[in-house]
Specification:
2 domains, 0% strand, 11 helices, 77% helix, mainly alpha, transmembrane, 267 residues, membrane, transmembrane helix
Length: 267
């Protein structure tokens, strides 16, 4: 299997071939749909990939640039444009091979994003939730012991999730060198995030039920409590979306429909 970096090296090697010919690079190019075979090939690869949009677009730009350069090199060597495009596509390899090479990088990119969100937001929210109690909490009325136990569970779970997420980031860096399965790592951080987030929400709901008066005073009747609630909703939504994407990449199936080899897009 070739990786994206190896593919870039392969394409740059192809562009160095056949430059001794005196043919102009621009000669013979069609005025419309200049690189239709190359574009079709790149679009086919892009449709098969799953992952962060920005990373996917960057990989496809890199692939297209390499194929365009390889095509120009073949044109310089005397091939017609259509044949040059077809050769560049064939030399790049089957679509299946490129999808298999690119998909781990996309999974790693999503895993890193999810890990960074968990590392920042879970401990951050744990600390933030104490702020309304400091300003609007009722210090003269002790809360039930169960509330303190649940509060400790939330604190330890959030800090543990943040620590595990930082460790996962280190594993993603090491995994690129040690050839670890980034798909499994992305799935693991996704599952961890779901468990911790669900536990945190369940404990928070239980605390509100066990201590409704103080909870309403802190989070419903004070401006700082409402502000913290708004931040919590946005942060939770961001984490949930990232967790879903990580789990889909780790455990979902890459669509098999429309699987085509390089020869299928080359005339």
């Amino acid at each position: 299997m070739i990786g994206p970096r190896a593919l870039s090296i392969r394409l740059s090697t192809l562009t160095g071939r056949g430059v001794a010919s005196g043919a102009s690079v621009g000669e013979g190019w069609p005025t419309d749909d200049r690189l239709s075979t190359v574009d079709s090939y790149v679009r086919t690869v892009g449709r098969r990939l799953r992952g962060p949009v920005g990373t996917r677009q960057g990989l496809m730009r890199e692939l297209a640039d390499g194929l365009h350069d390889a095509t120009e090199a073949h044109v310089r060597s005397g091939l017609p444009v259509a044949a040059a495009q077809a050769r560049a596509v064939r030399e790049c390899g089957p679509v299946d091979a490129l999808v298999a090479a690119y998909q781990p990088e996309l999974a790693a990119s999503q895993g890193r994003r999810t890990s960074m969100l968990l590392a920042l937001l879970m401990p951050g929210l744990v600390l933030l939730w104490d702020v309304p109690w400091m300003f609007a909490g009722a210090w003269n009325t002790p809360a039930p012991r169960a509330v303190w136990v649940l509060s400790d569970v939330i604190t330890y779970a959030g800090l543990a999730a943040g620590g595990c997420a930082l460790l996962a980031l280190a594993f993603f860096v090491a995994g690129a060198r040690l050839r670890w399965s980034v798909g499994k790592l992305t799935g693991a951080i996704g599952l961890l995030g779901v468990v911790v987030l669900a536990l945190t929400l369940a404990c928070s709901a239980a605390m509100a039920v066990l201590n409704p008066g103080d909870t309403m005073a802190v989070f419903a009747w004070s401006w700082i409590g409402l502000l913290v609630e708004a931040v919590t909703i946005v942060a939770t939504g961001s984490m949930t979306l990232s967790l879903i994407r990580s789990l889909r990449l780790a455990f979902g199936r890459t669509p098999a429909a429309g699987v085509r080899s390089a020869s299928a897009v080359a005339p």
